[in-house]
Fold:
Amino acid sequence: MIELKPTLYLDKGALGAFDLNSLSDYFQICYSEATLFDLLNDRTDLGEGELRTLNDIRALYYYRDSDRILSTEANAIDLMRKIEPLELEIMASAYRFVNGGGAQSLFDVLHNQLSALLNADKDNAGTTQLIVESLVSDQTLQPLKYQKSEQWHIELQRATKCWSQKQDFTLRSIFDQHPDLYLELKYYFPDKVPRPEQVQLAAMLLGVLQMGSDKGILSTNDDKSRKAAVNGYVDCLHVMFGLHCQYFLTTDKATLRRFRLLNDYWQLERKCALVSAQA
Structure:
């Protein structure tokens, strides 16, 4: 009888901090497209050698399939070659918008991003507009408000001001004290674990609630804000995939905080820890 090893998800930092060959003796190592996005952004931390190691230890690749998270053994190097930078830039721009940076309209965010990436003329970008309309009508983004509301941000700040510096709060305690806020956000925080896209959006909204956000997104330096948005978006992906494994390791405090809040909210009983990048 084959004994199944417990599943262990590591984000990029944690993945580079351990001897994966030794770790795989005790755990089934898992990774996702978030790992590959990280590699796309910073080729100095993970290279083809590490991807070969993922293949050698038969690491499981977690991916989205409609409303499910599935896993499979796949060639990590081949997967890396198929990663689409355009997708990352578009979704990071949407994440930047949700967290208070960038333009006022989500449509403008995506339109401008695609126009720049595709070198399209903004006044005659029919193809770009069709792509944007498809994106904003997609179930992942459709529930988000397309225009920022001053009152929306006032309510969020009021609800989270006294909590933002505390480590022992829970989402339920905030929602219990601020039922109006819960009514606004209940789509993203239902009682039962929702489909993957909602889990990802819940992790993203924790940034808006100042519960694990990178304030660099609000920087007036556009390049700094963009990089912070890319990192934040990818971290939310790590949380979404990591919640489907028994153990989760990260080197990022904000990522760990998001993970713990959602793990507690949905009572998933996953184990998680912060590790040093030099472990």
Notes: The beta strands are 7-10, 28-32, 60-65, 68-73, 247-250, 271-274.
